[in-house]
Amino acid sequence: MKQLLNLSLGDTPGHLFQHWKQAREWLNFFNLDGYEVAPYQTLHTQAQPMDIIGGVHLSFFPFLEAFWRQSPKLISQHFGHERHMLDYFNCQTPDQLVDYYCKQLDLAQAAGVSYVVFHPVVLSPLQLFDTSQQPTPLQSANLLAELLNQVFVKMSFNGYFLLENLWWPSGMCLNNRQDYELFRQQLNYDKVGICFDSGHFMAGRNFSDEKQAIATMLTHLKQHDLIDEIHTLHLNASFGSHHWPKVLPVAAENFWGQLQNDIEIISHIDPHQAFTSGEQWRLVEAVEPNCLVHELQQQSLLHWGAAISQQLTGRQESLTNMHNCQNLKIVA
Q1: What is the pLDDT of residue 332?
Q2: The whole model's pTM is what?
């Protein structure tokens, strides 16, 4: 089992490192194997050290319908103006979006990773917190299949394409086996599986403590025959379901202001905290994933490092202990 950390990927590795040497030293400090990287722009594959890329998290565009259908009515309703939509997708046409994903999959193939991760859900900006107005899972699956089946025809990647559970009813919540099969069966690709995110499972439910959460996950995954489909495990704890808005948030003046407000709320619902009790290793042992990703909040290197240590050791880690990282000249 490889143990990885999550890392956004642009001009620099993540927002806390200045260069790849720092990113490599960080892995060595915690004795971890690599990063699951999430590209957010077009990348040149020769710019990244491929040996420490262990997985690729494909870009997440939940507001797909207006762009994919090129519907002026939906564009106006969802984005306010076409320029906001084009900036959001960083491309102009559906064909360009297919190519955008293919380039991310080129990176995965060049790095030799065994899997990529995709979030299967379709929403509009108006539906993030209004579940009564969301599409059905079948509608989401059909629309995503139109996109992804074009990607599969053109892509170079030949590893596993993993679907990650979320908490929105229009997505793959993994309430049962059928939730997964509904999305999988629409895809014209043989190597499809699950990336199980423990925090996303928790964010859609109420738990009092880690022991209860892990016990519920284990029972649920076994009951619905899902364990053998899980290839990668995103490990983090989210006790933020009480932050779900009881009334719809007041709309901002424009799309980007509203998106910023919505992301702030979601960051409280799904805060990507570390498990600290040791119970998490029961889940890891039961699932036996090929890759375990410690997908944790990255507020600062000190806080990120403390969270990694907490999750690895199963005990609370003092931030003062993390000052040992200063020997690497990583933490300022």
Answers
A1: 46
A2: 0.93
